[in-house]
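Q: Structure tokens for this one, please.
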Amino acid sequence: MPNRILKESITTSDTINELTPEEEVFFYRLLVVCDDYGRMDARPSILRAKCYPLKLDSVSEDDIKSWLNKLVKVGLIKLYIGSDNKQYLQVVTWDKHQQVRAKRSKYPEPVEYIEENDRSNNADDSNMVSNDINCNQMNAYVPENPNPNPNPNPNTNINTYVATDVAQCVSVPAEKPSDSMEDGGAQSKKTGKDGYTQEFDEFWEYYPRKIEKKRAFRAWKARLREGVDPEILIQACKNYAAYCTKQGLEQRYIKHASTFLGPDKPFEEYINGPPETVQQGSSLLKEPKSWGLLRNLYDKYRQEEEKWV
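A: Here is the predicted structure, written as tokens:
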């Protein structure tokens, strides 16, 4: 996931001050595992594994349930039911503080919100859903992210942008998602027997070092499952190729595509263009003067040394 923004104002936030130290840490860890729209699978078992991979022996699912309830209570997150009838969470003020780059969310749009009173602190994963929201609308397929902004009006409460027909539980025949929707919701069409998508083939055409294509495709699919737009990856690839050309980089110094698309996301440096030093002119890329001075000193030392041989 992209890096998330924390502002200094959290230190004096009345809402954050209502949390215990453990609950506050959980909230910050939650921010970095949410997708680009501030959404996440709300099952405690999933949250425990994602937020505390190195502390599974000291953090229990009961801890997660308790902390989750507290975040709902103070208004930092909302729990909702998606079109697949599963429970998810949404960080309430996400769009005010974080950048949204992906065109679609990894998780379904809200169908029904769960009020804090509808949840039980001791409930297990299967019965954490309110009993009064089992209407036929739950079976309808809701396209992921029909609106690219998770909350288009910052002055509108997050509860208010659930569709009217959903709120009234109007029965709608279920639609099966198109076969072209795969890899985390990104639109892709497979081409040829190799199974590569058209978007990936376009990416590969521009990438400056063509090696280990299968590994690169696996990394590509992993990023798409996280909600990254393939067009962003293609643009980053073009910018990186331009950077490599301008730098005159040899093939051995160019990142493998699987690394460029890897979990550390080096591609993010090139989304908006090559690094600033390249844009400002090649003079900034010249060898530092100190390197030349050191080389001259070394050459003089070698010359003096050769006189005594």
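A few notes: The chain has two domains: 8-167, 181-274. The first helix runs from residue 14 to 17.
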